[in-house]
Design goal:
Chain lengths: 299, 299
């Protein structure tokens, strides 16, 4: 089955100690759609400007991503610029130029409206609502978010949560949203806000799922070298949804393994700038790391 | 088989927001020996002063701990006092009175010298050496440490590492020792210093083992409420050694499961002040949490 992915499509300029990487393909929808494409057909909704490089359209196409929902508007593509510290843990935003993203009004082509799996990747909660208003009887709806929306659009986000099957956020966002440091207390509170499944991402410590079958502690794939973690969270949830859309039977029977695939695709994302490494990844490479994680968790 | 445990025996006064807990039983050897006692006979070497409460001797005795190596010297018992912040993550030392610990010269009773499993719990590396000089052909030697020894006794610690089968330390100590943030790079470096097994503890994120059978990612048992994490690391390694000493066959076949038992006993330790909760723990309670961790890691 196909996955509908709505989010940002951006150009990312990333500074790391000693290197600059201007105008890489980025954005939550780009990372999530490429990650999902290893498992299922991805249908992307986003917006780019007239400056959006042809080679990035070709990259989407190589991954078989359906671009019927990608708008091209007069103006500049969303441009984000950030700087990482030496340990790659702390990121500082240098510049955010919204460009055409400011006018983004996600419109779903008719054939996208019946997508069974819907991923509302990180964009403003109001836009996530707008997408949900257009889809018909989806099987599984997941949303991701970021700290910005907790700060500037919390009421919209709170109204979104009851509309979701699963909500994915990182540990610092969970602390901010629930005002608790305790993982179990935070999960319980977020369930009370609506979603049956809650996934809290913990960076290099992996992620935790809380759902009808209890907790699942999902490890991160340990890496010798982290080149650029930008997009790792988007890759995680994109691969998770791609895997779920390809699996037969109820979501509940597959979501744990789907998260492990998410961890693995996120690990490839971290090994290159932007989508550099992810786009070169092969399914056998992914399977190999999944087997390695199996080996690292058995006791 | 029995486990020999050498470390500190102390009185801990712990302040948390709103409460004070004066002169609890503490010290690395106390926590480790009680944790080990759930699985194997523990033999403890330590030193206390004349002020050491009779009820704490009784506590050791209730756990069947062999106290033939516990010295009682004229003077005061090692007294540590610390304060936790509201989130229980940051600890501040208020006071350290070494007392009789300053003259601690661990002497192993004859029957302790042939202990097959030796745990050098956190004490000065020079004392850890002194203990190793007295044991005869142990099967498995593990040492724990703390940041203090990295700061003031690094050469002693570096000479200790080749004498160990396993070295256990926490993530910030690993960073300090290896000057790298990368977990895999840190593990590789520490192996080069000597030990075949390296365990890096990551607090509420669990721990990671690197050994002849590769990596093992060991989760922490998630807790609804952390009351006092003092001694959790000592409980972890104590339970791990107790479990290993009880298991038949090669260490390599059991060390992963031993770490899971370590995680579980550490979780009980965190649920009370000092040894309050640990000492009330039963083997069935431990087994129940081990099964729960199994359920939380399968995919």
């Amino acid at each position: 089955m196909s996955v509908l992915i709505v989010g940002s499509t951006a150009l990312d300029s990333i500074k790391t100690p000693g290197r600059e990487h201007p105008r890489l393909l980025g954005g939550s929808a780009s990372h999530a759609a490429v990650a999902a494409s290893f498992f299922s057909p991805a249908r992307m909704v986003g917006v780019v400007g007239t400056d959006f490089p042809r080679r990035y359209i070709q990259l989407y196409e190589r991954h078989g991503i359906d671009l019927a929902g990608l708008q091209r508007l007069p103006g500049k593509t969303f441009h984000w610029s950030g700087e990482y510290e030496a340990n790659m843990n702390n990121r500082r935003t240098l510049l955010t130029e919204l460009g055409v993203f400011e006018q983004f009004n996600p419109v779903l082509p008719a054939e996208f409206q019946r997508a069974p799996f819907v991923l509302l990747a990180n964009i403003a909660p109001a836009l996530q609502h707008h997408v949900l208003d257009q889809v018909r009887r989806p099987r599984f709806v997941v949303a991701d978010t970021m700290d910005l929306w907790l700060n500037v659009a919390l009421p919209d986000l709170m109204r979104l949560l009851p509309r979701l099957d699963a909500f994915v956020l990182n540990d610092s966002e969970a602390r901010q949203l629930t005002k608790t440091d305790n993982l179990l207390a935070a999960l319980r509170k977020i369930h009370q806000f609506g979603p049956r499944y809650v996934v809290i991402k913990q960076g290099s410590h992996g992620s935790v799922l809380s759902g009808p079958r209890g907790l699942f502690i999902c490890p991160a794939y340990p890496l010798r070298r982290v080149v650029d973690p930008t997009g790792a969270g988007d890759s995680f949830v994109g691969a998770m949804m791609g895997y779920l859309a390809a699996a037969k039977g109820p979501v509940d029977a597959h979501i744990r393994r789907a998260m492990v695939y998410g961890s693995v695709v996120a690990s490839f994302c971290c090994e290159g700038f932007g989508l550099e490494r992810t786009t070169k990844t092969t399914r056998p490479e992914i399977e190999k790391r999944v087997r390695e994680i199996e080996g690292m968790t058995k006791f």
